[in-house]
Amino acid sequence: MSDIGPPRGAGPLARTEARLAWGLLTPTILAVSLVVILPLLAVFWISVKPVSLADLRAPEAVVREDLRGRPAAAGDEATLRYRLRNSSPTSEITGVTLTDIWPEGLTLAGDLDPRCEVAEGALFCDLGDWEGGHRETLNIPVVTEQAWFDTGADVEDSPAKVDGKASFVLTNGDFTMKNFVSVFDGGEFWSVLGVTLFYTIFGTVGAMIMGLFAAMLLNHSFKGQGILRGLYLFPYVAPVIAVAFAWILLFDPFSGSANALFVQMGLTDQAINFFGEKPLALLMVTAFEIWRYFPLSFLFILARMQSIPTDMYEAADMDGASPFQQFWYLSLPQLLGILSVLFLLRFIWTFNKFDDIFLLTGGNAGTRVLTVNVYEQAFAVSNIGAGAAVAVVIFGCLLLFSVFFFKFMSKEEGL
After folding, report:
1. Which of 47, 87, 227, 353 is deepest in the core (most CB within 10 A)?
2. What are the Cα distances from residue 202, in Å, to 69, 71, 336, 382?
3. Measured at the alpha carbon of residue 101, what is the angle toward residues 100 and 103, in degrees to the nearest 5?
4. Above 60 in pLDDT, residue 2?
5. Is the bond preceding 279 in cis, omega lying within 30 degrees of 0?
6. Beta-carbon-side half-sphere exposure of residue 224 (alpha carbons within 13 Å)
């Protein structure tokens, strides 16, 4: 008697459904790969390459051809000129050759460069190896014939071609860890990381607390509630460049309204440079972060509050619970889930924030964060590899934070 048991493995219907599901997911997977994964892999690749801003263009031998002398009649002398250069300032091009069809109606009238020869109506030059930034000019003396004027020819009718072999730094096999060494060399990185953590933690927590207070205020119906909601959303929907410059003008040490008000009230004897002094500048950019992004927390928290059943609060009122007790024992446990998600999202977004600080201070006065460091390394110093290395460090920090969050914090909150 054979053993009879439950079927093992997926059946035909399950396999068909799996193939259909993968088929439907394929466009999404490809889109995510193109938009997210491929640029991320490119950053990792560049971070271990000795590449500068000038190396982003592949080395190429460039030639420009023209006829100098403006001949007007047959027998006039002229110069066939080839201006050649290596487009890369650092990479070498080996085995460079120049080929061009000899223009009809022009006759060689002098000595030809020893690297060149004219045979069977074609010019060929073996120019050897070019170092980075190499430039030279080939001048070939010629005499015009009547055929040159009869045909109305031009030397550019047959474009000259330059060939050679070059190793492109972005695609060759040269790798280096000097980019990461330069990132961690000295104490600058750790000070920048400390500023980034201060800005991220206090900006995230402050925006969430401010959004919580705003949600608690607007969780009750009153006259003008809709107008107040719209005003609360203004910092988030307004263009960042507009609100950033509004803050700069407001707190300007010479013509700012805030300084004038403080002096008239007797709070200070002289104007304060809010965005130009340590550590005040860091506090100001953190306050700007809180003010600008609390509306996002406000919307999420208010939506969650309005979904909490009112029966619990009515029962708590009958039992004599104070408003604080109702918030602590009823509202807060219901909000922990959305607060944890908000904290994760806001932490990641704030850690990656660049435009706010760059517009307010440019990273000066002790406000230089890691994202500003990426910009300075890649574009101000023209070290693309070091900038990519800092970006990889940012990715690693956020990855560690996400692992810690999902492993420990989310368990406490039941996510």
Report:
1. 47
2. 71, 75, 19, 32
3. 120
4. no
5. yes
6. 4
